[in-house]
Specification:
The chain is about 30% helix and about 20% strand. It is an alpha+beta fold.
Length: about 290
């Protein structure tokens, strides 16, 4: 799933390639991705792109004097830039293409979604705050005013485990399954540690890991075109997430996994849990 660093890289890329360009066609291929109907997609046509912004994991293409095209790529969605879009109308039901946006230059981008779980979401709104997911977002962890005291205040009364708290978009915007694993590994903290139990020193350590992990990931992603290489860059930069059974790059211990119904987390016992493996109830049941 694209998270804050990848969406920020896409925002940066699209700012360079879209700003000042006129949208001439918006072609819906998979109607299921459209979550709004008023204003219609055609309301975007004829308007120049004024700015591209990011709200957590949401991408906002704002037009000059017109509506906003807001997108959430979900788990398997992606944006593909085309210097020259194919001629002709795309055929619904043929491949992963969900939406095409064409510019007056002949360039544009496709929104695609792989797999069978269709969660890619597209909204056309007068204000991004009309999108429920945007309206409920917590603060952006890379914002200038997101300091250590802000993080401490957010976690002070959180009775949840750190893994769940970091992934809650209404608490902190933009962090998902992968980067929460990376942040906790960098902070040397168990994903099952209660958020409200952090000491001042632990809060400082978590804050430093949060900012550094996300900032470094954004820096790695910038300059990479909106294509498959951005996904590959994310994977290559991960130290523990998705690396079950591999050696930890810090201490050499074996990276372990805890599985859930629709996701999993990865961690290093030596770095994060005092050498103790975390209980994995799903795997335990499979082994009985």
């Amino acid at each position: 799933m694209p998270e804050l660093p990848e969406v920020e890289a896409l925002r940066d890329f699209l700012t360079e390639h879209l700003a000042g360009r006129e949208i001439v066609r918006v072609l819906p291929v998979a109607i299921s991705v459209l979550k709004t109907y008023d204003p219609p997609l055609t309301a975007l046509e004829g308007h120049q792109v004024a700015a591209v912004r990011r709200y957590g994991k949401f991408l906002d293409v704002a037009t000059d004097g017109g509506p906003h095209l807001v997108t959430h790529l979900a788990r398997a969605g992606w944006l593909h830039w085309r210097d020259s879009l194919p001629s002709g109308m795309p055929r619904p039901g043929k491949g992963p293409l969900a939406l095409r946006v064409a510019l007056e230059t002949g360039a544009g981008f496709d929104l695609t979604e792989a797999g069978t779980q269709k969660r890619l979401a597209v909204y056309v709104v007068a204000d991004p705050q009309e999108v429920p997911g945007v309206a409920r977002l917590g603060p952006d962890p890379l914002a200038d005013d997101f300091d250590e005291a802000r993080l401490a205040g957010l976690l002070r009364d959180e009775r949840r485990q750190l893994k769940g708290a970091l992934r809650d978009q209404s608490l902190i915007a933009g962090v998902g399954n992968a980067y929460s694993d990376e942040i906790l590994h960098a902070a040397k903290m168990s994903p099952f540690k209660l958020a409200a139990s952090l000491t001042d020193e632990e809060t400082a350590r978590l804050y430093a890991a949060l900012r550094a992990t996300l900032t470094e990931a954004v820096d790695r992603s910038r300059g990479i075109a909106a294509a498959g290489r951005l996904k590959a860059e994310k994977k290559s930069g991960l130290r523990v997430h998705g690396r079950t059974g591999e050696p930890c790059p810090v201490c050499g211990d074996t990276i372990r996994e805890v599985s859930f119904s629709d996701s999993s987390l990865q961690y290093c016992p030596t770095c994060q849990t005092g050498g103790k493996p975390l209980a994995d109830r799903r795997m335990s049941r499979l082994l009985k």
